[in-house]
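User: Fold this; tokens only.

Assistant: Input:
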Amino acid sequence: MDTIKLNNGVEMPQLGYGVFQVAPDEVERCVADALSMGYRMIDTAQAYQNEEGVGRAIRKSGVPREDVFVVDKIWMSNYEGDAPARSIDESLRKLGTDYIDLILLHQPYGNRYNAYRALEDALKAGKVRAIGVSNFYPDHLIDFCHFMDIVPAVNQVETHVFFQQVESRKYMDELGVRHMSWGPLAEGKNVFFTNETLAAIGAKHGKTGPQVALRYLLQRGVIVIPKSVHKERMAQNLQLFDFTLTDAEMVEILKLDTTQPVIMPSHHDPEITKWFMGFAPRG
């Protein structure tokens, strides 16, 4: 498994297993399957409400804890006062672990400065090994890197062949922040699974279109966390390291970029901002 070195020297797998929208009563089985197949990075979040199942699967797997890279995220309702610190302790309890490898702010709204300072404190206390952000656009990220003491190690944003984040990536690279994708399979939107360009390139390599799409992101240095609840799909999503896309094929896939989000509207859209405010009401 290829790894990515973060800006604090910590190395994380470039390919992992995501558990967004995996039901709490199903996640233990899914994570157990993923670990048995060779996945060594699991991405969860407080908002997914499945941390406990993730923790149980890791403990029962027989894989040493130090060999599993756990990513978690603080939800925006836990950004005020001492709530971020308390929520980190609660996530540690639910996961049944003494530390989290990487913890992110899940959204760029609310009292994000207060919440991130709690992440900095948790890093210094040894409760986490690396800290970062999620869904931060370049203006959010530039602002953060100017005011925070510790530059985020990772920015996890919607990234797939239809929304490749080319411009945002320039700023991440400039700031030393690693690019991590959520939704690398575009959640099947834009007829992703039958895309002719991906299928044609895949046929040349004996691979599926989705495998080509994931390989493309890997070759661009993006960290990916594809999700599936089916063992055969989990296995396919791991089989990405026995072929390499040519420069010409990379150019063809670049042409699929619409430069616009496909899964979720822009976090600069006033309506999506209003929608998120419903998850963290004041008072």
